[in-house]
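F.,

This is the one I mentioned.
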C-alpha cells in the first residue's frame, strides 16, 4: 500500500463526510463511502501517532541540565497551565 500524506487522507475524509451529509447517495454508495472513510480515519490516526512519537521536548532539570523528553498530551497540558 502506497504511503499517503496526512493532508491527503484528511481531505479525502472531509470529502466523504460532505458527500454522506448530502444524503443523495444510494445505499451501496453510502456503505462504500463509509468504509473508505473508516480506512482514511485509521490512516490519519496512525500518521498522527507516528508524528507524536517523533516529537520530543527539551526539559530543564532541577540541576539546570537540559534533557529531552517525549512529547505527550499530558506534557502539553501541564505546560499550558503554567
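My design for it:
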Amino acid at each position: 500500500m502506497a504511503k499517503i500524506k496526512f493532508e491527503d487522507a484528511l481531505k479525502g475524509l472531509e470529502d466523504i463526510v460532505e458527500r454522506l451529509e448530502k444524503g443523495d447517495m444510494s445505499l451501496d454508495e453510502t456503505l462504500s463511502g463509509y468504509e473508505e472513510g473508516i480506512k482514511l480515519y485509521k490512516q490519519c490516526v496512525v500518521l498522527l501517532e507516528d508524528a507524536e512519537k517523533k516529537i520530543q521536548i527539551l526539559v530543564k532539570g532541577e540541576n539546570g541540565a537540559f534533557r529531552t523528553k517525549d512529547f505527550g498530551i499530558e506534557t502539553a497540558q501541564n505546560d499550558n497551565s503554567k
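The longest strand covers residues 56-60.

Talk soon.
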